[in-house]
Amino acid sequence: MSDFIKKILSVKIRKANEKDANDWAEILHQSSELIYSKYVSRDYMNNNYNVEQLKENFLQEINQSNGNLELYMLILNDIPVGILKIGQPIKYYTDGNNYYRDDIEGIGEIKSLHIKSEYQGHGIGSQAISFAENRLKELNYKKSSIWVKIQNVKAINFYISRGYQKTNFINPNTNDKAPSMVMERTLRTQLKEDKDETQEYLHS
Hints:
The protein is an alpha+beta fold. It contains six helices and seven strands. Helix 1 (21-35) packs across helix 3 and helix 4 (124-138) packs across helix 6 (192-203).
């Protein structure tokens, strides 16, 4: 066994608000540059993952009132270290096609999870996934889904370690030209302490 064991860091999760726009955009920009730029064109990255565009997208989403989208900040010692977004899957995509199930009733989606590179590997991602799944369960979803870039092997392996399975649902026509697939996990009954913890996060 290695003499070095990474410390598990306990992260606070709270709902995002308009004041988080800069932190949200910076975190997503950094993470996207590290991950997506490996297989997404530079022109697409410059146009869609620049900080100003990401801030604009965030403010539009935070002001949605349909209740189908929830955005969260991951906070460690008062420092924003990650972002999380959950909601309902999209039925039809920008090209008008449906690349997922015909019936998405009862299925929630982890739409985005990004953590600053220097804070990865300390259990923050696993805590965020547990929180997201508990919250989706509270919203009466029976299954959790997530779109993952097929080239993003690290993310795929992470979700497999969290109990997710690959599916045959693939979108080959993504706007960024990097095909994505759906991974799914059935949401089981959560322990009471997990529910209590989720409520604590939501009201903190």
